[in-house]
Amino acid sequence: MSEPNPDPELLVAQRYSLASTRAAVTIVAAWHLGSDLPSTLIGWSEYRWPLVALGAWIVYSVIGVAASMVLLDPARKLPFGPWAAGALALLADAAVIVACRPEAIMAPANWGWGSVGWLALILFWRRRSWPTDLGLFFLANAIVMLVGMAAADSLDRVWIGKFLVILFGSMALQAGASAGAHGFDLAARWAADNSRTLARAEAAQRAAEQVHADRLRRYAQARQAAAPVLTRLAEGADPSDPDVQHACAVGAARLRRLIAETDDTPNPLLHTLRACVFDIEKRGVVVNLLTAGTVPPLALEVRQALIEAPLEALARARKQARVTLVATATQVIISVLSDAEEFVLPSPDGVHVATQVEGGLLWIESGWTAP
């Protein structure tokens, strides 16, 4: 079974997040290949032990590849924690310092201490405490470099000045890149959250407007069902007149139908039909209701059109009536056989209505067929 698609806003946020992580990995790889490797090869003569520097570059590369794979695929995990990998990176940094000649301690050949912060950027990327982790890593890196400078007897004012310039320059680039990428990711998630909130608010507003429109429509339908009868009675019509009684019965049945249609039921058409039958039975009419099949989902307008003529026939019944509902997946037929008098049939859209009078009984059929 396929999983449901996530929200479009979430997809956008995930794409922005993936783009920022890819950018971080690209920067680290470009720096290591475009700066550290040339510095190692060009400064080969400035090393006391050049193979140690090359080995440190390889170790750095292995850590970078492993951290990048984990960063780009959250399903993967490092065989050791990010701080263990960070400690190994600091050892590689120290190895480059040890490999350099004392006079080359500030030369480009000693690339490790200025570059290792990029590796920390992707190692601590997904940790919530990444600012603290980076700060501690930068501090440890500075201590490693100061120890190397002390061992090379390079702690005079000039060397300390160079150290501070390179240290803060590299830290500013690395910390700024990390903060910018995380801020970009956070902004994308905020935008997605705000978009979802706005979409929910708009959906709630549309639902409220639809409910209000439905209420107005039902009010108009109820008024249309009751107004003619009430107007006739207000104008002095005789309540004992059979025509007036029939009109009152039809209006009451229509109101009953409107009330029944507001209920949430699995089969609203049958529910409405039963409510109308119940209303007719209260007048003493014997009604036999028969059903066959399962009614397919029908729009409210179709249900109203389908039941209009049967409702009229039931309302005009005097002593007895039989109602039959037959349904298939593509067709619904409602037929009424009653002792009502013949009347002018309504002709609603979307359904066909037929009638026949035989033996003093009125037969009406109302049918709908799927298009």
Number of domains: 2
Element order: H for helix, E for strand: HHHHHHHHEHEEEE
Distance between the termini: 32 Å
Give a quick account of the main beta sheet: strands, pairing sense, barrel closure: 5 strands, mixed
* Class inferred from helices and paired strands: alpha+beta
Q: In what order do the strands lie side by side in the largest sheet?
A: 1-2-3-5-4
Transmembrane segments: 49-72, 79-99, 105-125, 134-152
Keywords: Membrane, Transmembrane, Transmembrane helix
Question: In brief, what are we looking at here?
Answer:
Keywords: Membrane, Transmembrane, Transmembrane helix. This protein has 371 residues and is an alpha+beta fold. Helix content is 64%, strand content 11%.
Protein model, in words:
With 371 residues, this protein is an alpha+beta fold. The chain has two domains: 8-197, no CATH class; 238-369, Heat Shock Protein 90, CATH 3.30.565. It is built from nine helices and five strands. It has helices spanning 8-42, 50-72, 82-99, 112-123, 130-151, 157-234, 242-261, 268-281, 300-316; strands at residues 286-292, 320-327, 331-338, 352-358, 361-369. The protein has a five-stranded mixed β-sheet with strand order 1-2-3-5-4, covered by helices on one side. β2 (320-327) and β3 (331-338) form a beta hairpin. α1 (8-42) runs antiparallel to α2 and α3 runs antiparallel to α4 (112-123). The two termini are 32 Å apart. Residues 1-5 have low confidence and may be disordered.
